[in-house]
């Protein structure tokens, strides 16, 4: 299927749910993003700051750019003027930097807190206890130029669907807990659960995802060798 057909087919699948499609376009050339755009796609996800900035400079201005990959603190300044949502806040120090750069740009930046839900050791993110204590802190309350609108998680890369389902369900229940404890704060407005990728988005949607991040199933396999 073409990229346009893929975009349409995902939108049909999500029709009637509360879930949005983030088209993950990392490593793909602008022409392919433009094809998706022409098919109606407006939310694009990238995982490298430089690539995100370059694409945002040439592609249509009404695209909402989401940063989905691990973000280094020294690169926040490059995306702070325009990024629509950062999915990958994985430490208080990173959020503090986002707060600083958002203030300089006189804007409020929406973010998701990345939560560690997988069995693998390598994934970035907060665990539940860290998250609760951070959101309870005075340091966080003073971050008035960021708005925490949800959580993001990546399931274990496994063919065991029950495992994946369990991990997504745990993120959903954490989201509900955070909502009841912290939604009254001025810089918290929890509405989004970013979970699900090409291989596991169906389970994610069943477990309450509001944003699926789909790359290869839309744009084809990535070839890092030619980048
Ligand atoms: C690359 C990436 C995706 C998309 O992965 P696919 O398997 O190609 O759909 C989703 N989320 C994050 C954080 C990624 O880095």
Account of the 3D structure:
This protein is α/β, with parallel strands linked by helices and 227 residues long. The chain has a single domain, classed as TIM Barrel, CATH 3.20.20.10. The chain is 41% helix and 19% strand. α8 links the parallel β6 and β7 (188-194). The protein is globular. The chain binds pyridoxal-5'-phosphate. Pyridoxal-5'-phosphate binds at residues 24, 26, 47, 68-69, 197-199, 213-217. Pyridoxal-5'-phosphate binds next to β8 and α10. Keywords: Pyridoxal phosphate. This is Pyridoxal phosphate homeostasis protein. Belongs to the pyridoxal phosphate-binding protein YggS/PROSC family.
Give a brief description:
This is Pyridoxal phosphate homeostasis protein. The chain is α/β, with parallel strands linked by helices. The protein has helices spanning 3-14, 30-38, 49-58, 76-79, 92-104, 128-136, 138-141, 161-182, 201-206, 216-219; strands spanning 20-24, 43-46, 64-67, 85-89, 109-115, 146-153, 188-194, 211-214.
Keywords, please?
TIM Barrel; Ala_racemase_N; PyrdxlP_homeostasis; alpha/beta; pyridoxal phosphate binding; single chain; binds pyridoxal-5'-phosphate; 8-stranded parallel beta sheet; 227 residues
